[in-house]
Amino acid sequence: MASSSRTNSRTKQTRPRGNPAKAPARGVPKPTFGDWVGAARLRTLPLAVTPVLIGTGAAHVIDIRFHWALALGCLLVAVLLQIGVNYSNDYSDGVRGTDDYRVGPTRLTASGAVRPRTVLVVAMTFFALAAIAGLALVIRTQQWWMLAVGAACILAAWFYTGGKRPYGYYGLGELFVFVFFGLVATVGTTWIQVQAAPQEAWFGAVGAGLLAVAVLVANNLRDVVQDRAAGKKTLSVLVGRRGSQILFTVCIVLAFALAGFLALFYPIAWLVMMALLGAIPALLIVWMYRAPRELVTALSITSLTSVAYGALLMWAFFG
């Protein structure tokens, strides 16, 4: 009897988490349209808007004409990629069993309400739509080398939590978010419009990237205990609660310090400091929270702070 018990225990421990082919669990309500919208994680979409705003403003420094069609195209690519990566994360974390430990809203895959393959198809559909929109921009501008940049963006989106060795599980998520949601998205937006990359685009890109990193830190800090239990080694798992709080603060302070520096040349940029009305409450929550769920609010506020930052900086460049 004891031997049988030990055998069952070993079986449970070695059983792989998740099953990409499993059907929705019995008794689980069918997902509503609201559930699908929730899985798109709308609170993160401002992070896709911010670099496009800043990049468009930086383009105006080179060419006072407003290339509205190209700007909208860049925005479409950014938003579609953001939604695609959110569904991709839902699928990948769900089939790995990582989301079985999470604190935030229930995910489609982890809840068993939707077949994992269906979520994967939705993610790939958004990636494909982003690729089509990006191809249209390339054809319009004849900047064919940017096809490689677009491919790199899609690969980075997928391998964040997808594949055999997702970089998001090894503490590299913040680095890639800074590069792709900051540098690539902002400077790429400027280049598409004016085929140039002025200093304003690079400085703005760093600010956008830092705020995107801050959002990810708030998200990972919320899930640090659960991610550690699931074996997901995010940067917050590696540096702990205090290290994450410090990193969040540094990202916010540096982003606004950059805005202050740009204000020396573009006086309207001082208005970017108005976005601190959102950043300061987020900082207080990150340092004083008692329950992990409180960090969802900090995440949302920081995301909205980011788009306010981008809009005001764009205004400064247009001025």
Query: Helix amount, in percent?
Result: over 70%
The structural class is mainly alpha
Mean pLDDT: 88
Tell me the overall shape.
Answer: globular
> What is the terminal separation in angstroms?
79 Å
- Strand segment count: 0
Largest pleated sheet: none
What is the radius of gyration?
A: 21 Å
Q: Supply the number of helical segments.
A: 13
Which stretches are poorly predicted, pLDDT < 50 over at least 5 residues?
Answer: 1-23
Q: Strand content of the residues, in percent?
A: under 5%
Question: How do the strands and helices of this protein lay out in sequence?
Answer:
Layout (H helix, E strand, L loop, with lengths): L1 H13 L18 H7 L6 H17 L5 H29 L11 H4 L4 H26 L4 H14 L13 H22 L4 H24 L1 H7 L4 H28 L13 H13 L5 H25 L1
Descriptive account of the structure:
It is a single chain. With 319 residues, the protein is mainly α. It contains 13 helices and no strands. Helix 9 runs antiparallel to helix 11.
Q: Top keywords for this entry?
A:
single chain; 319 residues; mainly alpha; globular; disordered N terminus
Give a concise summary.
This protein has 319 residues and is mainly α. It has 13 helices and no strands.
